[in-house]
Amino acid sequence: MLSRFIQFFVLAPSDLLRDAVYRRLWTSILCSSLGGQITLLALPLTAAVMLNATPTQMGLLQALEVLPFALFSLPAGVLLDRVRKLPVYISGEVALALAVASVPVAAWLGVLDMAWLYVVGFIIGTVHTTAGTAAQIVLTQVVPRERLVEAHAKNALASSGADVAGPGMAGLLIKLLGAPMALVVDALMLAGSVLILRGIRVHEALPPRKTQDFWAELKAGLRFVRDRQLLVSMAILMAAWNLFHNAALVVQILLATRELHMAPQTVGWSYVAIGVGTVLASIFGHRISRRLGPGPCLVLGFSLCGLAWLQLAFAPSGSLGVASFALMLFGWGVGAVLMFINFLSLRQAVTPAPMLGRMTSTVRWLILLPAAPGALLGGWLGEHFGLRTALAFSGVGCVLTAVWAWNHPVLRGVRELPKPVEAVTV
Length: 426
Hints:
mainly alpha
């Protein structure tokens, strides 16, 4: 009854959430995002607190989670253009649920160690490489291309709602059950997402292919990206962001627990700041993008992430340190949403449907190649030069890259979504 009231009396007549198929997709994103917030905290806290991981081990854990993007993105794109995307998306959610559920089982059996977490991290990365790409394409089958920025903003709002509620819930679960056992709830949330997705019906007519040559199709995807200056420029920018982001991600929880002396529950509650930031950016991001243009809005988000990491590098301990940690998460939340709603929309808008799988996987491969080296570099800097040095490296590097991007004519000059550029389909 409440959902019908919201649908017919609160939403605008043209709101995307009035569409039953999109509403179902949006609900599944909300459900899996709530569970994802638990894993976001519980997995690194299990490593840092329960298993006493070193910065180098934390870096290796993060590197193994992003390594599958480098290994599997390109072949996954070719295969995705040959098959229906929704079943791949659903299968990925199932695999993710089984992977995170294995951690509390291993802890209960007394066999949990860093090697187990490394395997789980690799599986999570593999699922995000394949099913994550499929999920992005499913959105284009549900939503008209001219409304992609709006759809990505609403998807970000679903994730943002999880960002607000999830950390508090995760912190409470971690306090009551311990970090490994809290992952059971994520597995249940993912199971709920699967049930919701199974009710979605999309029409996907696979186009006839001129050849079944795997390598010819892979090369066609690479050529398509190479020949579009906008895609190349965005790939360079986002590759730099992933290097700095993963370097910072490795050390930020270690800094919170070991130098700012924050308890795991305090860390969990601090993550609510991400939710506040992402909610605000999700609500106003579409308007900001229309006002500034997708390109400048993307660069703005990039800058905010760098400034957020930089201020935390100089945070004192005590209550000011907790506030600085929350401010970092807030700034990162705003910046990440502003970046990704425009980045995803731009790359999808410029690409014809038969090339979406290969374009998405090629771009994801390019932008995530530096992620594993960034994680390892962040761990190495944190262990040999201090956790704050690693954060300062990320902050300064990100700000300097934003300055380059602002002076880049292609990125700064994109003021509206482009039309798809047709390419020869292989």
